[in-house]
Amino acid sequence: MIPWVAAALLLIGLVFVAIRTVQVIPQASAAIVERSGRYTRTLNAGRHVVVPFIDTIRNRIDLREQVVAFPPQPVITQDNLVVNIDTVIYYQVTDARAATYEVASYIQAIEQLTVTTLRNIIGGMDLERTLTSREEINAALRGVLDEATGKWGIRVNRVELKAIEPPTSIQDSMEKQMRADRDKRAAILQAEGVRQSEILRAEGEKQSSILRAEGEAKAAALLAEGEVAVAELLRRGARAVPARVSVPPVQHDPLLPDDPRRVGRYRLTARLGEGGMGTVYLGLSPGERRVAVKVVRAELAADPGFRRRFAREIDSVRRVGGFHTAQVVDASAEEEQPWLVTEYIPGPSLFTVLREHGALPDRTLRTLALGVAEALEGIHACGIVHRDLKPGNIIISESGARVIDFGIARAVDATALTRTDFLVGTRGFLAPEQLSGAPLTPAVDAYAFGMVLGHACGAAPFPPGTELATALRPLPADLSAIVTACLSTDPAARPTPAQVLERLNGGGEKPAGDWLPPAVRTMVDLYNMPTADAN
What we know:
Layout: H1 2-21, E1 22-25, E2 29-35, E3 38-43, E4 46-49, E5 55-62, E6 66-76, E7 82-93, H2 96-101, H3 106-122, H4 127-132, H5 134-149, E8 154-165, H6 168-236, E9 262-263, E10 266-274, E11 278-284, E12 290-296, H7 298-301, H8 304-317, E13 328-332, E14 339-343, H9 350-357, H10 362-381, E15 394-397, E16 400-403, H11 409-416, H12 432-436, H13 443-456, H14 468-471, H15 477-486, H16 497-505, H17 518-528
Antiparallel strand pairs: 1-4, 2-3, 2-5, 6-7, 7-8, 9-10, 10-11, 11-12, 12-14, 13-14, 15-16
């Protein structure tokens, strides 16, 4: 029994000696070996053999970069304020022997050296400079640490100030000062905005007064000339009195050098206008009939999908009838720039009328509303939504209000879905769902119809903070109710064109006489006279 015990003890001793003899050092580590209390060598990563009981491993050191965050340290600035500063040190041991024998604890030494250096640096700065000189403090601190830790076998790679916290009372004062500065800037900007707004409003009222006075003067002059002519004819015993006095006709804008001179079989003679979808020209058919030719913008024409939608829309638009829309007479989706030809409706736009003469009287408003509602009823019956109803797309003609520019709205709308900088419609007349990107229904035209009537009566644009009922107070009760319902934010609550016609036609017998004021009638007459547009 005793030999077996001895053998087991011998085996255990050999295993213990083997473990003490073979030492494995992990990667990115080093070990300091001492023999009889004196430094012998440094063991790097790998397997090493040491003499058991004679060689001892004094210290194992991690050679990877270390990140050490020191707790906040109170430091007094030059202006005697206490600030708490958090620091982070990024260091790496480059000499395991020096890190073991040159300093008792390099971590504690780095911390104490950092605190002492911070107090020396910040003690020569006031609070404002301390808060704005992080880079300067970091650089000075790193320089001192590099100089001191080099002999310890330490390399300081980076020094950062995590936070500089002034006293709570100083923080409150700084916050109040910043808030006061912001309030001051906001007050200055608001005052400047009010000033500019007042200047622009005054200039607009001045121009409006001048234009209104010029229009009234022209109308009065024409009326006086007509009365003189009638009196002269009556004096001579003439049997027929001319209906209109000879005055200069309306001149359209001439073609620009880059404008086409012919589109399809139509010869272009003048410019009628330009919008987001394209340019509209006055043209002549082979039979010398005047037509309006709309040429689509080049960027829309470059989209093959737009061309397909445009061709489908033309088929729908041709079915639109009625007395209050412009009939489509020709179109092409195949040419380099697609075009659409409609009948030319001589007359000023509602936008021009409102700009020249201001708000319309009740009789004119009521007839205008009936005409536009009747046009929208015909457009919606063909499955088309106008999407851009506004005063500029309503012509005041000899035969009443006529709605134009409803032919390519849906084709353009589909193209606009893929573009962030293009929106079909005119701001100020867009329904809320058009701005939010919700599916569109004929109710968007009802909203624009309400805005058109609001502009025509002089109530729109509505002043900020004014209730709708207050703004529409000048309107008759039935028209005010219709406009209020059309401007509802709920599309389902807006009336259809048929419902608008039913409400307005129930107002009793219509008054006799011209529905247009004399000055506006004169404008319409001028548009209906032969023009001298350049070919």
